[in-house]
Amino acid sequence: MRYIEPHAHMVSRVTDDYAAMAMAGCQAVCEPAFWAGFDRGSAEGFRDYFSLLTEHEPKRAANFLLPHFCWLCINPKESEDLKLADEVLAIIPEFIDRPNVLGIGEIGLNKNSRNEIIVLEKHVDLAARFNQLILVHTPHLEDKLKGTRLIIDLLKNESRIEPGRVLIDHVEEHTAPLVLEAGFWAGITLYPQSKCTPPRAIDMVERFGAERLWLNCACDWGKSDPLAVPKTALEMRTRGHSEEKIDFLVYRNPCRFLGQSPVFKLS
Ligand SMILES: [Zn+2]
User: How far apart are CA 31 and CA 53, in angstroms?
Assistant: First the structure.
């Protein structure tokens, strides 16, 4: 079996996770910029983080012959501080041409606050100016529907953004149809506790079709499973889905979306 892990925070994971993913058939790992579990003290902390994502982490992945790609941004949780956000937004262009940078992400909303929306708009403008793909984080729990609607409206009102070049992540049963009907791609995040279990994910695939969907583990410093995608592929197999359909969902779909960026090349 072959698959792409399109959303994994490998800076928070041990080397054994890379080994396990490679053995399970992973062909590439993509790492969005995110909240570190604590607020960084200054924009310089982000400069170090972007160096880590573009220099150090690809080397660690290469030990397991895994291509490593990343996305850059200041995450919604730290976007509440507008001055810090502006300083980080000014740093991103220094890194945007690095050979493993796929685009701007994971941007989006956390508490749907005014400041988060201002910073989201600035990221979308940056992506449009530099012709970058976009990866969007949607809020958890009760804020998800409202936040997803706000994000879709904001993106739809920006004429420079093509929906087919945006993936809206962490969708659930009540938000996936909104995202897909608006022409965006949707990501289903597999978590052992919150978010989505493998059976629930495959229920969604069966209900909404696999055309513009992908699966990801979003493993980070919390309880999460770097092998959630291959485990969900196994769930599909036990339900009688064909190998071709599994390959479409876990390999060809991420390749189709990410392949819109010239840097996404698998040798
Ligand atoms: Zn994430």
Answer: 8
Distance in angstroms (rounded) separating the CA atoms of residues 200 and 248: 18
Q: How far does residue 220's CA lie from ligand 1's centre (Å)? A: 7
What residues have CB less than 8 Å from 15, skipping those under 6 apart? 60, 63
Q: 240 C-alpha to center of ligand 1: Å? A: 30
User: Tokens 């079996």, residue?
Assistant: 1
Q: Using the mean position of ligand 1's atoms as its centre, give its distance from the Cα of residue 194 in Å.
A: 13
pLDDT in tens, 163-200: 999 999 999 999 999 999 999 999 999 987 766 899 99
Q: Which residues place a Cβ less than 5 A from the ion ligand 1?
A: 34, 218
How far apart, in whole angstroms, are the C-alpha atoms of residue 215 and residue 186?
A: 9
CA of 237 to the centre of ligand 1 (A): 27
DSSP helix/strand/coil, 5:
strand
pTM over 0.90: yes
Domains of the chain, start order: 3-258 (3.20.20.140)
Distance (angstroms) between ligand 1 centre and the Cα of 225 equals 13
Instruction: For residue 89, give the amino acid letter.
Output: L
Cα 152 to averaged position of ligand 1 atoms, centre (Å):
19
